[in-house]
Specification:
Layout lengths: L8 H4 L1 H4 L4 H14 L3 H18 L4 H17 L3 H9 L2 H10 L1 H17 L3 H17 L5 H17 L3 H19 L4 H16 L3 H11 L7 H17 L3 H15 L5 H17 L3 H18 L5 H16 L3 H19 L7 H13 L3 H18 L5 H18 L2 H20 L3 H29 L1
Amino acid sequence: MRLLTAILLFALVAHAAAQDDSVPALNAAGTAAMEAGRHDEAAEHFGRALQAMEAYGGYSHAAMIIVGDNRAVALFAAGRAAEGAAAFAALNARRDAMDEADPAGHARYIQNRANDYRALNRNAEAAALLARLAALQRDHLPEQRNEAADTLAMAAFLADAAGNYAYAVELYRALVSLRTELHGPEHPQSLADRGNLGLALHRAGENAEARAVLENLLPALADDEVRESFMLTSLAAIARTDERHEEAESLYRRALEIRENGHAPEQLAAALNNLATALYDQHRALEAEPLHRRALTIYENILAENHPTLALARINLAAALDDLGRTEEAEALYRAGLAAQEAAFGPDHPALSPTLGNLGMLRAAAGDAAEAAALFARVTQIRRAHYPPGEVSRAAAETVQARHMLASSGDIGAALALSRAATDGLIERTALQDGPARTRGMGRFARHFEVRVDALWAAAQAAD
């Protein structure tokens, strides 16, 4: 990985370095610490170098950006994400000046630095840099206008991967505009960009516009079965999110019909699982079960034993069997899926929490209160580690664990603490929202508050 470009500083600021020997020395010390894996120490050296440069005042924007980026990279590598993000943002004004002063040189530097941030899995910072690079290529480097579209596509992809969905939508809109200007609206790449915009809109919660974008694409994809089935699947996912279950089922069936016609086995398996899930949403587990089983058979033949997709296929089939009362087979599949997820993601990944919760419900129904309690506690622990107070899935985990404690263990104090955490978090989160979001939040609060009332009532009875 190209961790640092600090060595370039000497060429950029030789005249200043002659008057301030501390800057090259600190920069060299930071580089050595970084290469040795002492990231906190590296960040300290680069921070002191930056302070010395600012105090002297004779350094170029390019030199300051290099040392500032070195410090941000070191902070991210040290796990100090908030400080790294602040250090990264502080460079924006200097980057603006460099855009005008030396667009070609700055473009090369940005590309290298974006690679550094990507290597550290800092996709948000890499996306911001690549968006800036795309603007440089488009506006200041006319010979690179085609490359600007590819750069912008990568920036949008990384913003999406980082969960910055609103920013991803903004970038995809700019990409669609640029690609249409370059190649026309019916060019295959322009069509692909419009599809990605629709998907980003869906992830950003803009389902009405997402649906319109994707529906407008369908006629242009009539001769491309792979893309047509993908668009149908995406439209079905939007319908499912909006709880238009019959529409989702119809769209998934159309996608499955296409993929039954000699498409890759993993695409066929995905289509089977999608339709089965739509049926399960409508409480039609008996119809969903054979589709899930067929998908699982396909995945077992093409994927490694601990592959996450195979794990999810087992969990999906387990849920259908659980609903049908075939609990022994369901439990075996839940446990196999959970073991594979733990092997793939580790023991504390958010992907595990639905499986742990389902298995907990199954064990509670079987009368195994001890294991159920341990499973529910893991769900709460995972969601508290990954989500803020009042986030829906965190509050749900806290409430489920509290309800189980009241029903089985009799630990009223712990149940009350969990239910209080869930409802207080929901109140605080809902107070920051407006309109429909606040209405939904109050509905969730009411459902969760029932458990808190039950805990208070149990405590009152115990005190009598």
